[in-house]
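pasting for the record
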Amino acid sequence: MEQKNIGQPRSRFRKINRVDLVTMSIAREAILLDLGDRMRTVDDYVDLFDVSRGTVQKALSRLENSGAVSIEKRGVLGSFLKGRDRDILWYEADWHHVTGAGAISRTRRQEALASSVYTAFEEAKVPLSLAYLQGSLRRVQGLLANQYDFVLASKCAADLILRQYEDQIENAITLEPFSFLSGYTIVTRVGCRVEDAKRVGIDSNSPDHAIVTKRIFSDRVEKGETDFIDIHFTKMPTATAMGHIDAFVFNRDVMDFVLNIPPLDLHEIPFELDLAELTRAVVLTSTNNYRVDDFLRIILQPDALATIQREVMEGKRLPIL
């Protein structure tokens, strides 16, 4: 049986030793089982977590003695989950309060996405604290530091991050197209055609922005017709208006920000660009956080989140801030 990393406790956790960690892990498994389901054997847990039989037996005894679970032993048939106390069990699993991080809600779409996540946790009766940090890499660094149980990011950024942290981070849930943003527009200084732009702004610290910009302009850069100018995306509208760059690509959801800095021209992307993968949101988790991915997949159903997000954007539901 493949051994599993049962995780390391975060600073706010009371878990401090091997028995505590195994107790937490078995409690998480008990939450994910249905009543009446067969549980793993002691030997299974020994192999799974690479611990002694005594450690597993102490963990199981703690869960039973605390009233977290009721286990029915059926001899050679094994042990079955007969009952459980939700509050005690979730406390033992350290899932009694979940933490996450998302992008700063600067747009209606981001506000609606965060609201859909909050609503899903409310309906599951699981307390959630959601932090807001700009930059997917910053959020992932918090995930790696055990500050969060999950983080939200665009699939575009997540794919790059997963290459760098493939053994530490995993994509637990992929949401629907346009859940993270609605698309992109090319912005130029007044009177400048897209094909005449010589200096194009690119934010190398924003994976989403860099990938889209390169897809649109890389051919012209390779031909020597255009140069990329590295600049933070929030400074691009002003830099274009002042003539420092000729064009840049911008998130459609924040075009109000661009229009407040005249004069600028807006252009459609001059060819078909598949936005399905570029606009999805994903839920990232740490491989060091045992079975949190399975737990989140129960709570965060993509179709349900999409419905709530759409209702918030249409004004049919109040956002949760």
